[in-house]
Amino acid sequence: MSFVVLAALAVGLLIAVPVAAHLLRRGRAEEQEFPPAALVPSRQTAARQRSRLEDRALLGLRALIILALAALGATPLVQCSRLSLARKGGASVAMTLVLDDSHSMRGELLGGASRWQRAKEGAEELLRSAREGDAVAIVLGGKPARLALAATTDLSAARAVLDELGPSDRATDLSTAVTMARATLKPLSHTDKRVAVLSDFADPAASRLEGIWAPLPALSDASESCGIASAEVRGRRASVNVSCTSADAARGRKLEIVADEASAGSVTDADGGARRATSGVQGSAPLTQRAGKQSVTIELSASGARLDARLTGEDALEHDDTAPVAPEASALLVGVVTDREAGAVSTGGPTILEQALSALGNEAVVRPLSLVPDEAKDLKSLAGLILDDPPGLTPETRSALRAWLERGGVALAFLGPRAATAQLGSTLEPFTRGAVRWEPTDATRVQVTNASWLGAESESLVDLRNKARARLEIPEQAGSQVLARWSDGEAFLVQSAIGRGLALSASLPSSVRHSDFALRSAFLALLDHTLEEIRRHTGPRRTPAGMAWQFPEQTRLEIVGPEGPAKSAELSTLTRDGDGQRDVQYVPALRGRYQLEVNGEQQERVVVLDADELHARPNMPPANQLERQAGGAGGAIDASSELALLLLALLFAELAFRAFTRARRATPSIKDERVTPRAAA
To answer: Is the dihedral of CA 126, 132, 137, 140 positive or negative?
Structure first.
């Protein structure tokens, strides 16, 4: 505390003045009832009368008035830890608050509060220091970065939005958030524009940020923790991915797989026998004492129960010490029906189609099939189906395939010479209408007409070195369209909507014997587009927090997450680029299990954490010169209005008390009217 502040507070020493005045005041002595003493006049010494304090309540009021005057005089000179905005000549300020709502902000600071709580308090303090004419915007730094509030001068609206914000389990995306923050300030007319970042900067790219203000460096205080990124069942084992910030955080800790009581029932043990599941530990394994990622495999004593993974011990972040175990069926299972001989490569191993699907690296699990199942129940476990030059489909297979497509399945057929050899009664509906003809052609170039999803890869559809092609007859049904055509106008790629599903057909097979289509980048783009359609229609069963789920617009959808049913405001509608179709989008922000009802069918999805987010350590904010100019944690306390009101209230209280005391003393008492026996005589 500076000398000037001490000098201002020294006014409080004047409290000795009313104390001395009350001590020097001569007052009446208090009368004591004693009948014999009524005949003798009462006398007391003057010294004892002066040394006695009277009207202590009045003395207290006067002392409080002096203290209030001292505090009022010192208020402009006192600094506090509350964040505030420093202004250049009193001009208005345009500010974007970048609030990091990523998973790492759930970590605890010294004192027990989380980083998110302190960041939100700092944002509230900055809003309280804003004045009329200031513009405020709010951007969230969890992945993907989002604009929570566009720049506005309505400070009450900004406070309302800030009150509704909460932490999430997303990864960190500060670089995008800062870019978005600058974009919101650019069109404003304010000359003083600032980007205030409230984050722990647990992002390697954050060290390269420039021109920002980091008013809370304490958010970067180090903390040690381990967390479970994801867990899934693989046969009789559970595979758990764990990340630790340091080796000390993993010391003496182990992983346990437990079954909850809700899943207790008849399950299968390791020997294949049936027994009743319990809510106890189904298996455990110790953690390796090291920093970073590690994968732990645990043998399960039973399967079929609903399992959770948990870490023993304690750390600075308990939220990620437990996680749901995703069932084995949570993978994106894609069935592939192909001729092993026609689709094989010279080096052996999987076919070209299977290798291409694996090369995309999108967590799709390929299941090779010899034939297309002819029963709907055999197709139910598949999320997608890809056929490479099939020799026709029987009526039973077509019926099962159509029923599966109508429930939301997605299928892609590459048609070639084997498709033209379909036997009597076998056709390739619903991929194409009627019989398929494999015919010679001089056309070797494909023109993309309605397939912007191919992007730059469409340029590779030139000189395909094909001598023949399959002639596609477009199905006569609503929702069928040609996505690409040969240079002579014949269809190359056709898409048909069947119920809630989708069927695509291409007029070339994947075999390199007939063309080099499978060697072009457009081939991979087509497979990637098919997998994206599979995710959109059937939905991924396991996704990281912050990744959007998309459903066709007409889908009847109900979602129940870890915090209850999803609100209608959390669902958004967007138009896809290229085909103009509209989708319903939901973004799960918290890890855990989600129960979905999609058009009457029950689904369970699991949201997991980003492993890099778990072992990322907080970093000190990058040094920049704007921090000193923008304000900080040393703003002046502006409590003059409150203290002035308190001072007025004390003055009125003193006046009221003095008036009451005078009125009371002016009223004659019984003692004053008492008549002694001698006076009566």
So the answer is: positive
Q: Is the distance from CB of 562 to CB of 568 less than 8 angstroms?
A: no
Average pLDDT over residues 585-603: 89
650 SS3 class: helix
Supply the angle between the helices 56-74 and 16-24 in degrees, to the nearest 10: 160
- Tell me the C-alpha distance between 639 and 69, whole Å: 12
DSSP symbols for 480-537:
EEEEEEETTS-EEEEEEEETTEEEEEESS-S-TTT-SGGGSHHHHHHHHHHHHHHHHH
DSSP SS3 for 193: strand
Among 118-132, 213-227, 237-251, 261-275, which is the least confidently predicted range?
Answer: 261-275
Cβ(295)–Cβ(241) below 8 Å: yes
Question: Could you say which DSSP state residue 459 is in?
Answer: G
Minimal CA–CA distance to 487: which of 508, 461, 511, 465? 461
121: left (phi over 0), alpha (psi -120 to 50) or beta: alpha
Residue pLDDT, tens place only, 125-160: 999 989 889 999 999 999 999 999 999 999 999 999
HEC per residue, 68-119: HHHHHHHHHHCECCCCEECCCCCCCCEEEEEECCEHHHHCECCCCCEHHHHH
Instruction: Output the CA angle 236-315-591, nearest 5 degrees.
Output: 55
In angstroms, the Cα distances linking 336 to 352, 364, 377, 387, 408 are: 11, 12, 17, 6, 18
Beta carbons of 118 and 139 less than 8 angstroms apart? no
Alpha-carbon gap, residue 397 to 271, rounded angstroms: 36
Q: Give Cα 128 distance to the centre of its chain.
A: 26
Query: Which single residue is written with the structure tokens 């309605």?
Result: 450
**Which strands form 571-575's sheet, in the order they lie side by side?**
549-552, 582-586, 571-575
Q: Phi first, then psi: what are they for 586, rounded to 5°?
A: -135, 135
Q: Which of 341, 339, 431 is nearest to 388 (CA)?
A: 339
Q: Nearest 10 degrees: CA dihedral of 677, 679, 680, 681?
A: 90
pTM of the model: 0.66
Say which amino acid occupies 57.
A
Length of the chain: 681
- Residue from 114, 97, 94 nearest 106 by CA: 114
Dihedral angle computed from the Cα positions of residues 151, 157, 159 and 163, in that order, rounded to the nearest 10 degrees: -110
Structure tokens at 270: 């390791």
pLDDT digits (tens, 9 = 90+) for 500-537: 788 999 999 988 888 888 888 889 888 888 888 887 77
* Start-end of H helices in 97-246: 115-129, 155-164, 174-185
Rounded to whole angstroms, the Cα distance separating 439 from 518 reads: 19
Cα-Cα-Cα-Cα torsion 239, 245, 248, 254, nearest 10 degrees, comes to: -20
Question: How large a percentage of the chain has pLDDT more than 90?
Answer: 28
Cis before residue 430, ω within 30 degrees of 0? yes
Residues 6+ apart with CB under 8 A from 361: none
Identify whether the C-beta of residue 141 lies closer than 8 Å to the C-beta of residue 101: yes
How far, in Å, CA of 495 to CA of 144, rounded? 31
Residue 193 forms beta bridges with which residues? 94
User: Is-contact 328 235, C-beta < 8 A?
Assistant: yes
Q: Which SS3 state, helix, strand or coil, does residue 240 take?
A: strand
